[in-house]
Design goal:
This protein has helices at 2-9, 14-30, 32-42, 75-79, 124-133, 156-167, 192-207, 225-238, 259-265, 276-289, 305-314, 323-328, 331-344, and strands at residues 51-53, 56-58, 62-64, 85-91, 104-107, 112-115, 140-145, 173-177, 215-219, 242-245, 269-272, 296-299, 318-321. The protein is an alpha/beta fold. The protein has a single domain, classed as Aldolase class I (TIM Barrel). The protein has an eight-stranded parallel barrel with strand order 3-4-7-8-9-10-12-13, surrounded by four helices. Strands 5-6-11 form a three-stranded antiparallel β-sheet. A two-stranded antiparallel sheet has the order 1-2.
């Protein structure tokens, strides 16, 4: 059924379809009978799925990655799809339109997406107003924070601290995003000195709170082993809670989609199956090099229950979906949770 629905949707502009689908999910949630039906189809609740991670109790270990619900407008409807946690954002201090359209493309042959959205969002104040309205209090909420496009890297810390302060009462954990390829020069903040300084200043703010909250760093799949070793050093030095592995890639290697077609799409990060193996390998590398001491969420190319299990076996504690959710639908969330439930009792 979903394959037919997807076939129809994939005939239209990807970004317009996104807004159509989340609007449809909101309508399903708003009508009590359809909400119950939808939840009965996709939500799996079982004590074996409950996962404690960084002191937070997740109803299940399958979450929705940042970028899908940038402004925290659809949390209740998305929770009906079976997610145990939802990461909003990337949120910036002020609203910004993002990059010029079109900026979202499907690579169907690769089961991938190319995007150059550019942190389009309504700003942190608008996200807070949406977070205040949410009714589902069981689903865990992450806040993915970034800087405005026009903020120079030398002043980036101020943007991250502003978002951190504003969102602190409303989210359960934070994600520092310096790995998106779609904001000019943002990835320069992944270099050791600026990244360490950024994280230390956020940690200082965190420590000043009555109860601190977990802070994770989201890293790119394009980092080499030497850079990953530096990331491990930075995590140990700054004592942030952990990592999210990994963001979209700027690599165009080994794609099935014809090069001319990809070139026509232009710049942007690719998500989905092309980074399945790379993100899993990174998780395994970090887990082994850190002696299992760095907690991780896995994201990148989770299109099946086996993909999720591979990432958990490599050393992650939770998995996030984005592109896999688009290509496979909410049944993917259910299939992963069912497989994990079954594995827990074996």
């Amino acid at each position: 059924m979903y394959k037919l629905f997807r076939f129809i949707l994939f005939q239209f502009d990807a970004e317009k379809v996104h807004y159509f689908v989340v609007g449809l999910l909101d309508k399903i949630h708003a009508f009590f009978p359809t909400r119950l039906l939808f939840r009965s189809l996709f939500v799996v609740e079982h004590p074996n799925l409950e996962t404690t991670f960084l002191g937070l109790k997740f109803p299940n270990p399958v979450g929705l990655a940042a970028g899908f619900d940038k402004n925290a407008q659809h949390i209740d409807a998305l929770a009906d799809c079976g997610f145990g946690f939802i990461e909003i954002g990337t949120v910036t201090p002020k609203a910004q339109p993002g990059n010029d359209k079109p900026r979202l493309f499907r690579l169907k042959a690769d089961q991938a997406i190319l995007n150059r959205m550019g942190f389009n969002n309504d700003g942190v104040t608008a996200s807070i107003e949406q977070l205040k309205k949410r009714q589902n209090r069981r689903v865990i909420i992450g806040g993915n924070i970034g800087k405005n496009k026009w903020t120079p890297n030398e002043a980036a810390v101020e943007d991250y601290l502003l978002c951190f302060d504003a969102l602190f009462p409303y989210v359960d954990y934070f994600v520092v995003n310096v790995s998106s390829p779609n904001t000019p020069n943002l990835r320069a903040l992944q270099e050791k000195e600026p990244l360490q300084d950024l994280l230390l200043q956020i940690q200082e703010k965190n420590a000043a709170q009555k109860v601190s909250k977990p802070i994770l760093l989201k890293i790119a799949p394009d980092l080499n082993d030497t850079q990953l070793d530096e990331i491990i050093e930075i995590v140990n030095h700054t004592k942030i809670a952990g990592l999210i592995v990994a963001n979209t890639t700027i690599s165009r290697a080994q794609l099935l989609t014809p090069k001319a077609e990809v070139d026509q799409m232009g710049a942007g990060g690719i998500s989905g199956k092309p980074i399945t193996a790379r993100s899993t390998a990174m998780i395994k590398y970090i887990h082994e090099k850190s002696n299992g001491q760095i907690p991780m969420m896995a994201v990148g190319g989770v299109h099946s229950a086996q993909d999720a299990i591979d990432k958990l076996d490599a050393g992650a504690s939770l998995v996030q979906l984005y592109t896999g959710f688009i290509y496979e639908g909410p049944a993917l969330v259910k299939s992963i949770n069912r497989a994990l439930q079954k594995r827990a009792v074996q």
